[in-house]
Amino acid sequence: MDGKMRWSVADAVDYKGFPADRSKTGGWVPAALILVIEISERLSTMGIAVNLVTYLGGTMHLPSAESANVVSDFMGTSYLLCLLGGFLADSFLGRYLTIAIFAMVQALGTGTLSVATRLPQLRPPPCNSSTTTTCQHADRFQMGILYLSLFVIALGTGGLKSSVSGFGTDQFDEKDEKEKTQMANFFHRFFFFISTGTLLAVTVLVYIQDEVSRSWAYGICCISMLVAIAVFLTGTRRYRYKRSAGSPIVHILQVVVAAVRKRGLEYPSDIALLYEDCPEASRIQHTDQFRFLDKAAIMADGDNYVVNGGTSTPNPWKLRSVTRIEEVKMMIRLLPVWTTTIMFWTVYAQIITFSVEQATTMERSIGSFQIPAGSLTVFFVGGILITLAVYDRMIMPLLKNWKGKQGFTNIQKIGIGLTLSMIGMVAAALAEVKRLSVAREVGPAAARRGTTLPVSVFTLIPQFFLVGAAEGFVYTGQLDFFITRSPKGMKTMSTGLFLTTLSLGFFVSSFLVSIVKSLTAGREGNGWLADNINYGRLDCFYGLLAVLSAVNLGAFLLCAARTKPQTPKAGVQMESKVKSSSIDEDDVC
């Protein structure tokens, strides 16, 4: 019996629902099959996002600002729908089914987009390049089909991103030292696959879109996802499946609802009288902050209900334990930093919209080869990879030898990233000043669509590289911050909270573009964000973003000064004992 227990994973089951056999399930092979889905998702999402603005402006004839907003809304919706995917995975479907279903949804979306970009009836007639008159914009039906395709892709992306990384880590047992090390390596390889998918998207896929056919490129995305699904399903018998502990969103709502229901009750004279049902080893000590939530733990008549067998159990919508309440408080403490990181993703949105649109007007030839405008984002990805390599191989060893530290703290990483993104917007404004001066010299000819200005596209490299380097710090810093500062039972929720900063950053970008366009539009409708950027003042818009980034950086520093690592709680102090005990992780509280 003891030998059988050693070969099984305590908190995981196989595809038949039996305890997972360590020798037959989990490990690198199943994890690799899951990563195939991730590389295909990145290929599709980023391949569409980084070059969509050129399609909207050049083929669908949308104004510059509207094109940028469509891309921002597409990316924002993709990340916002991660919350829906996470909720479905935690509460109903499980991660395996969530991945399988939403991968099919994304394949359907890319297939629809391939058809939408192929049929001439679904796009307006080409412009007459010999005139400077306004081209015919896409009509509502044409835009409706395009929006439908993008929404379906966003839905698929949201479902996949919420579960792929989690299901990958499910294949490793934290209680086994060897597998725990493998899990740490999995995160590095996961990020490598994200970067690989993005590199393929901004180079190979963008080239196919510009030089061969967009419908062919999007068709490749559809086929690659179908192949990835087939590969993913081959691992069904070898995967480990974790039992769901329920949705953290529901737990948070239960605490809030219970506190509101008991808002009229008096606090007990002793906090020991507050309700607590978690084992002592996993309890979180009571704190005085956000005391209004403590009322959810005040015991009163009617808190219990009777279930089958006559057992009386607390109604979770009326009574919650101190530990559950403290978990919610820990999530609330994340919000100041969460708020001040949204601005970075607003800056990020400009790199895949207006910066790409700038590139379309500039000289992009190297000999006889012309660089696709969307492929300029390769310098953005390069900024990420070079930053991570330099940090891992140079900065970390230097700090370890100098101050005995393992590297920058998560707060310091975020601060460095926010500073670099602010400098990136300054660089973008200066590059645009130079580009606009050339456009003014060209004169009326600059108004024609497809006009190439005699200024090198490599002028844009600093803004791409700086914002890419900033993401290398902000992304890893945010992920580390939200995971390490959140309660153990809400790691999935904290990851979702992190992803919402990306979503809101894109939506803030869309809102800001609309406001600036409305406020600065003159009699001719040009303003800062003109329909043709050669007649606008994109440099002023970048300058505004630099100023907002500086203000946001100041707010972040104030929040960071007041954000200190959590004092060790009872549950945290005993964590290693809990892991080595026979209690399942999901049954601790």
From TrEMBL:
Gene3D superfamilies documented for this protein: MFS general substrate transporter like domains
One MF term in the entry's GO annotations: transmembrane transporter activity
Subcellular location(s) of the protein: Membrane
Pfam families cross-referenced by the UniProt entry: PTR2
InterPro entries noted in UniProt: MFS_trans_sf, POT_fam, PTR2_symporter_CS
Keywords: Membrane, Transmembrane, Transmembrane helix
One annotated Gene Ontology cellular component of this protein: membrane
Gene Ontology terms: biological process: oligopeptide transport
Bilayer topology annotation: Multi-pass membrane protein
Record-stated family: Belongs to the major facilitator superfamily. Proton-dependent oligopeptide transporter (POT/PTR) (TC 2.A.17) family.
Protein name stated in the entry: Protein NRT1/ PTR FAMILY 6.2-like isoform X1
Species this chain originates from: Phoenix dactylifera
